[in-house]
């Protein structure tokens, strides 16, 4: 008994020390070393948003991808080097864009306090700013993340796929310490942005042996998607906005799920357990409830531990 306890204790301690460097995050992390960091980052995101309204969606998705692979350690920002392909060159990268926003924020922060603010923190803060600029809530972001030294295209298969069912989604989130409530709230990130046909075409053509179209999709919605995404097309950039108000943070996403008009199986699947269905219904009827849950879950997701250093250039390890 005592022995088993010791073994369990030791292996847990070992796992913690090996797998989570345990960078303690805090709200006042840069108070003395870079007091203007947040302002500088916010100004950069605001400036880039003024000329490109798709910047918030890009930054939010980038942050999500970062946190789901090796923790929030800016691994998504590293460039491929030699024959090692980085995450950003892995298969689900079709929508990753606007890396220049983080580069510009980093440059501006470095000019003020060189070598102090991690790229992972810049990305987490920029994601918060992106939500606020889109009409969503704002919140205090705990800081002190470190940047990682590894990024592998092959690891992008660890991201949840749009074809996932509710149990696969639950597993993907729980492996990262995130709950079903986090899953429903964070999926609301799909209130922003754009999706390519490749991400949902399985639902509208040849769904399975008995149904051409996924029966969990509204027929009129499927018909409109079919016209945007015909079976055969050379249009690589074809697709549609995630919701009609795709540059505004609102709760339309949840209303569409209730109407069977969400794009991905992973969105529609949120109706498949009583608990997640209740949350979808709650968020569809209250933007405030959604915003509150989203903030809570963003803080949780963006605290998944990663890296070791403060990179000088977000695209390269030191
Ligand atoms: C629950 C599992 C999730 C799956 C399966 C998923 C899947 C996808 C897919 C397939 C796309 C479209 C890619 C394309 O075709 O261009 C997309 C876009 C997007 N996702 Fe998710 N996602 C998930 C969770 C999240 C989370 C947690 C967030 C953030 C909180 C998020 C934010 C976004 C945003 C903002 C876009 C639009 C990107 C843009 O327009 O640049 N997603 N997602
Ligand atoms: C995505 O990956 C492909 C190769 O796998 C690469 O050519 C392309 O530049 C990448 N896209 C982005 C936005 O990094
Ligand atoms: C979800 O998909 C997995 C893998 O295909 C399958 O084993 C599982 O039974 C499915 N679960 C549900 C609830 O459909
Ligand atoms: C096709 O999908 C529908 C809905 O998920 C299901 O009811 C049906 O049994 C599936 N058909 C086959 C042949 O798998």
From TrEMBL:
PROSITE patterns linked to this entry: PEROXIDASE_1 (PS00435), PEROXIDASE_4 (PS50873)
Alphabetized UniProt keyword annotations: Calcium, Disulfide bond, Glycoprotein, Heme, Hydrogen peroxide, Iron, Metal-binding, Oxidoreductase, Peroxidase, Secreted, Signal
Positions contributing to heme b binding: 190
Site (Transition state stabilizer): 61
Catalytic residue list: 65 (proton acceptor)
Chief location of this protein within or outside the cell: secreted
Binding positions (substrate): 160
Subcellular location, record wording: Secreted
Domain Plant heme peroxidase family profile stretches: 24-318
Binding site for Ca(2+) 1: 66, 71, 73, 75, 87
Signal peptide: 1-24
Origin superkingdom: Eukaryota
An MF annotation (GO) of this entry: heme binding
Cofactor note: Binds 2 calcium ions per subunit.
Functional summary from the UniProt entry: Removal of H(2)O(2), oxidation of toxic reductants, biosynthesis and degradation of lignin, suberization, auxin catabolism, response to environmental stresses such as wounding, pathogen attack and oxidative stress. These functions might be dependent on each isozyme/isoform in each plant tissue.
Family the entry assigns: Belongs to the peroxidase family. Ascorbate peroxidase subfamily.
Protein name: Peroxidase
Organism: Quillaja saponaria
